[in-house]
Amino acid sequence: MNTLRDAAVIARRNLIRIRRVPDVMVFVLIQPLMFVVLFAYVFGGSIDIPGGSYREFLIAGIFAQTVVFGATFTGSGLAEDLQRGLINRFRSLPMSRSAVVAGRTASDVVYNALSVTMMSVAGLVVGWRIRGSVLDAIVAYALLLFFAYAFSWVMACIGLLVPTPEVVNNASFVVLFPATFIANTFVPSDNLPGVLRTVAEWNPISTLTHALRVRFGNLPAGTPEPTSWPLQNSTLYSLLWAFALIVVFAPIATRLYQRAGAR
To answer: Nearest to residue 149, comparing CAs of 240, 245, 31, 66?
Structure first.
């Protein structure tokens, strides 16, 4: 209980920044809006999705890409605290050693929820619709935010390993950019050649995107059943990845927090 209480205090401290530093929230919201508008209007007319609308096909991919990139706020936030010496101050307080990282990852779920809300509104404006049931839509949003939470533990480890927030952003971009594009986020994976298609089918970002499209009812009419196991079981595969990321990286992040603060 002490760990949960301490983590809640840290999460509240991070969320207060929304009010005190509103420009942070502005950039959190502008980037996904920019992607929705650019892809919907710039690429929407040139990418053909047989049996469906590209704008409906697109939104699930934008959701998945945005929450994965949004996890970088966890890493850059921890790197900034470390750079400013706040980590040493936290370590001098009588709190659980995992509370700082846990609070950081929890607060970033709120950032992602706000970002997804804004993207949903923008999607509705450009023509996206939720065609599944209300329950399916709730499951889709919950899966999206849970995956984002799990991935933020990976970024927490990076933030505690590198010296500055700028390095976190640059390092994350090098890895996340190809990971989100070698997937079915913006084009069907069937359009990718050979090895890239296989990578895309097993990419957890692809399965998350596919699960969202299924739940939202955004799969184009006549879409053939996927032949790879991850896409056939996209919700399960995405959940397995999310749980695995937490199990592996949460203990590592906690240990790195102890070592980083001791430097």
So the answer is: 245
**What is the end-to-end Cα distance of the chain in Å, rounded?**
29
Compute, in degrees rounded to 10, the torsion defined by CA atoms 185, 196, 159, 155.
50
97 φ, ψ (degrees, to nearest 5): -70, -20
Tokens of 74: 């966890």
* φ, ψ of residue 152 in degrees (nearest 5): -65, -25
**Tokens 């040493």 belong to which residue?**
88
Burial class (CB in 10 A: 0-12, 13-18, 19+), 50: exposed
CA 150 to CA 112: how far, in whole Å? 12
Q: Which residue has the tokens 């799990």?
A: 150
Q: Where do the domains of the chain lie?
A: 2-262
For residue 224 the two structure tokens come to 């053939």
Which residues, 6+ apart, have CB-to-CB distance to 97 below 8 Å? 91, 254, 257, 258
- Tens of pLDDT, residue by residue over 2-14, are 677 777 877 777 7
Alpha carbons 190 and 53: distance in angstroms, whole number: 17
The angle subtended at Cα 204 by Cα 198 and Cα 210, nearest 5°, is: 85
Q: Please, what's the largest Cα pairwise distance for the chain? A: 60
Digit-coded pLDDT (tens) for 163-212: 687 788 787 888 888 899 899 998 888 878 889 999 999 999 999 999 99
Q: Are 71 and 152 in contact (CB under 8 A)?
A: yes
